[in-house]
Write a structure and sequence with these properties.
This protein is of the alpha+beta class. It is built from three helices and eight strands; from the N terminus they run αβββαββββαβ. About 15% of the residues lie in helices and about 25% in strands.
């Protein structure tokens, strides 16, 4: 079973320079002293110091909703991602077993439509919103590797694939880093595949992700996988 870290508020600091004239309340402010050559010097405007979340986010892919999802993962913040989730509606079942339809609660009839998100973490399953929120809280802590146009080989159907990576929880059984694949369709997250044994490079190769749309800092974010 895939394991993770289950588990900033930044404020803007504005520095202002205010010139205070000496004298009584009726006195006019002193004029600036002329610089050599007869020209007056002008005080430079202070530069605001902004918190991380208030800096202007650069354009990533030019696709607004996809960029919003990317920003959420780059900031490791689930809040902007909540409205960008698209759950699938499927009939539930009282039959047990992994990989099948979502299970019904005891108070639900067989076949009751329920909202679920497909998630694969070594074992596939459908997770209800309150369950997937906990999964997303783990996944959002991972690091962004790249964003690609999806192919039919992606784990879940969609238009785009966001590839993340995390350090292995069990280096003896897994590679040092493991890839996570987030499928995005029509500006919404529609499924998450937390691979157990694939590095980001291997996932990109196996799923034929040959069209990158965004790579952090415009460089290959391949972590060191030598061991």
């Amino acid at each position: 079973m895939w394991s993770g870290r289950l588990t900033f508020t930044c404020a803007a600091v504005v520095v202002a320079a205010i010139a205070v004239a000496c004298g009584d309340g009726d006195s006019a402010p002193a004029s600036p002293s002329p610089a050599p050559g007869g020209e007056e010097t002008k005080a430079s405007s202070p530069t605001p110091v902004l918190g991380d979340k208030e800096r202007q986010v650069p354009e990533r892919t030019g696709i607004a909703e996809l960029d919003a999802i990317i920003d959420g993962f780059m900031l490791h913040d689930t809040k902007p991602l909540w409205p960008l989730l698209r759950y699938t509606i499927l009939p539930c079942t009282h039959a047990g077993g992994l990989g099948g339809p979502p299970g019904c609660r005891p108070d639900q009839e067989e076949g009751t439509p329920v909202d679920v998100m497909p998630f694969s973490g070594c074992e596939f399953g459908y997770y209800r919103p309150h369950e997937f929120e906990l999964i997303l809280a783990e996944v959002v802590q991972d690091n962004l590797y790249g964003v690609y146009r999806a192919t039919p080989d992606a784990r879940f159907p969609g238009e785009y694939v966001i590839v993340l990576f995390r350090e292995s929880a069990d280096p003896e059984m897994e590679p040092p880093v493991v890839a996570i694949e987030v499928s995005v369709d029509e500006g919404r997250i529609v499924g998450v595949n937390a691979t157990c044994f694939l590095t980001p490079e291997e996932l990109v190769e196996q799923h034929g992700l040959t069209e990158p749309l965004f790579l952090p800092d415009g460089t290959d974010q391949t972590p060191d996988t030598t061991y």
